[in-house]
Amino acid sequence: MAKLDVNSSLKRLQNRYRLVIMNDDTYEEVVTIKLSRLSVYIFLSTVFVLLTGLTVALIVFTPLKLYIPGYGDVNNTKELRELKVRTDSLEEEVRYKDLYLQNVRNVLQGNKPVVLDTTALKIPKPEKIDD
After folding, report:
1. How far apart are the C-alpha atoms of 57 and 51, rounded to whole Å?
2. What three-state secondary structure class fits 88?
3. Is the pTM of this model over 0.90?
4. Which residues of the chain carry a pLDDT beneath 50?
5. How far is CA 95 from CA 92, 102, 103, in A?
6. Does residue 44 sit in helix, strand or coil?
């Protein structure tokens, strides 16, 4: 494998080329531009950095940032969390009330016999303290 010489690579970047734009009908040169690989690379890099910077600035300094998932107003985020907790607790309360009403309905209709809690409690005897 041939080694790449740093000097030859640098010279290739600095070689000059000519870009000629010609009129197809008259073969007249409309524009002539002298370029090198290095100048084209620098130009394209600059355009990329400028476009990236403009895009970031557009998102950061305008209301477009609110459309990014996970990003939003701090107050709205706090309110959404509170509403979620409140909704969860309300759903749980509705579930408990439905279960209670179903049990009452079953008892009143006689579908389910009432089961009394007959578990014997083991209450420890109080200790006597002798003085």
Report:
1. 10
2. helix
3. no
4. 1
5. 5, 11, 12
6. helix
